[in-house]
Amino acid sequence: MKRLNKKVALITGAAQGLGAVYAKAMANEGARVVLSDILDCQPIVESIIENGGDAISQVCDVTDNTALNNLVKRSESEYGPIEILVNNAALFTDLRRKGFEKIKEDEWDKVMLVNVRGTFQATKAVVPSMRRCGRGKIINISSGTILGGVSHFLHYVTSKGAIMAMTRSLSRELGDDNICVNTIAPGLTESEGLYNHPDYSDVREWNRSLRVFQRDMLPEDLIGALLFLACPDSDFITGQMINIDGGRLHY
């Protein structure tokens, strides 16, 4: 039997990049996946169905409570209670690296709105469904940048540090509900949005040189940890972070 057989998994920010990879991987393990994004996820849904998986999608802004509640209602109507939430939606590739003094307050607020409040709001919308299910797995996406510190990216790094703090606190609040809350912290990953990003052309080689495994990090390198945290194998693990960066940082 597949590890996520018939479990309902909601992935935010799933129209492209890492979110789409997460959704396909979970569908391959038998999950009924619900994809959401501010963009249309239907091409990813069609790809999953063509490969024998089960998926639906809905356009949803994670900072809009009405949209989130409608997404949960549809998910429960078509599949049943949600057991797995992957909080992937975030601003990253749309941001440019710059000194902190050049970051405008409205840009700072937008990053915090999507990356931090969006994770909070999506979690708040989904937890009642997990309680109806009697169990749950929340997988937040932080970043390896919070471990070593990265200059000229203060808003993003700060937002991802908040995700780890949120994970620790939520794990304690939700333990009595049999809900595990954990975080994955990826290193610099060769996602769609990174390929042509002008700020990272000169960073790749430097990152590779610092890794134990001196190669580019690929989206597929995150799948093992994701599935582990989503499946029953990790039922006694909560409030933790798995750092995945090919050995660049040791903590």
Describe the model.
With 251 residues, the protein is an alpha/beta fold. Helices cover 41% and strands 16% of the residues. The chain has a 7-stranded parallel β-sheet with strand order 3-2-1-4-5-6-7, with helices on both faces. The two termini are 35 Å apart. 43% of the residues are buried.
Runs in which pLDDT lies below 50 for 5 or more consecutive residues are none
Largest sheet: 7 strands, parallel
Give the total of domains: 1
CATH class: Alpha Beta
Within the largest sheet, what's the order of strands?
A: 3-2-1-4-5-6-7
Question: In whole angstroms, how far apart are the ends?
Answer: 35 Å
Task: Work out the helix count.
Answer: 8
| Helical content class | 40-55%
Short description:
The protein is of the alpha/beta class. The protein has helices spanning 17-28, 42-50, 65-78, 105-133, 145-148, 154-174, 204-210, 223-230; strands at 8-12, 32-37, 54-59, 84-87, 136-141, 179-186, 241-244.
Question: Which characteristics define this entry?
Answer:
seven-stranded parallel sheet, 251 residues, Rossmann fold, single chain
Topology at a glance:
Layout (H helix, E strand, L loop, with lengths): L7 E5 L4 H12 L3 E6 L4 H9 L3 E6 L5 H14 L5 E4 L17 H29 L2 E6 L3 H4 L5 H21 L4 E8 L17 H7 L12 H8 L10 E4 L7
Parallel strand pairs: 1-2, 1-4, 2-3, 4-5, 5-6, 6-7
